[in-house]
Amino acid sequence: MAKFDKIEVLQKIGATGMVPVFYHKDVELAKQVVKACYDGGVRAFEFTNRGDFAHEVFGNLVKWADNECPELALGVGSIVDPATAALYIQLGANFIVGPLFNPDIAPICNRRLIPYCPGCGSVSEIGKAQELGSDLTKLFPGDVLTPKMVKNIMAPCPWTKIMATGGVEPSRENLAEWFKAGVFCVGMGSKLFPKERIAAGDWAYITELCRACLTIISSLKS
To answer: EC number(s) in its UniProt entry (predicted)?
Structure first.
């Protein structure tokens, strides 16, 4: 069962403005990454369903985070079908993210008051997702669609909450482009977790990078 309901999760995401996106098959390494982000101020984290037995890693992370990162809303990404969404919800996912929009996933999440954030590439997809209860939609791939699309969507549909993912970088210049365009938050993956830093176990670097990003985002939203 999810630790936080839909409103609480959206509040956490909106308050920080950033959702780290990460996957690793080694649960102990994943714990270190999650803790480093949490220590840096992150309160919503997306573990992606990208490897064999990823759900087993996730289940262990949820149990561990309940004690070590008590205010963290741990969600899952790369979900493309309702069966997989249901599996992760049963394991304690606080939110579900997808690279695409599958309308069959929405009822599964709505029934348990869990946010479903589908990947959308058009205004029509975003509108349909909102109609089915997705308060937050993911603009994906962000590096292809660019902040200009966000700005153009927000003009006629200012109620829209968008999470840009793909092409987001931990720099003031890049973050400013997205937030000035009107995103609700950003999802950030590889740029937040340089391979060499992960390999070296430099968790302090991850913590400081998260803290720096959240400080920049806070100044842009104020």
So the answer is: 4.1.2.14, 4.1.3.16
Terminus-to-terminus CA distance in the chain, angstroms?
34
Give me the domain span that covers residue 25. Answer: 6-221
Q: How many alpha carbons lie under 13 Å from residue 84 in its C-beta half-sphere?
A: 21
Classify residue 1: in a domain, yes or no.
no
The residues of the chain scoring below 50 in pLDDT are: none
Query: Does the predicted model carry a pTM greater than 0.85?
Result: yes
Domain total in the chain: 1
Asked, for residue 127, whether it belongs to a domain, the answer is yes
Asked if residue 196 belongs to a domain, the reply is yes
Per annotation, catalytic residue among 35, 46, 161, 177: 46
Q: Of the residues 35, 138, 161, 177, which is catalytic?
A: 138
138 in catalytic set = yes
The answer to whether residue 128 is catalytic is: no
pLDDT tens digits, 134-153: 999 999 999 999 999 999 99
Residue 38 forms part of a structural domain: yes
Among residues 216, 214, 210, the alpha carbon closest in space to that of 33 is found at 210
Task: Residue 207: give its domain's CATH number.
Answer: 3.20.20.70
User: What strands lie across the sheet with 96-97, from one edge to the other?
Assistant: 116-117, 96-97, 73-77, 44-48, 18-22, 185-188, 161-165, 136-139, 119-120
Per-residue pLDDT of 176-215, as tens digits, reads 999 999 999 999 999 999 999 999 999 999 999 999 999 9
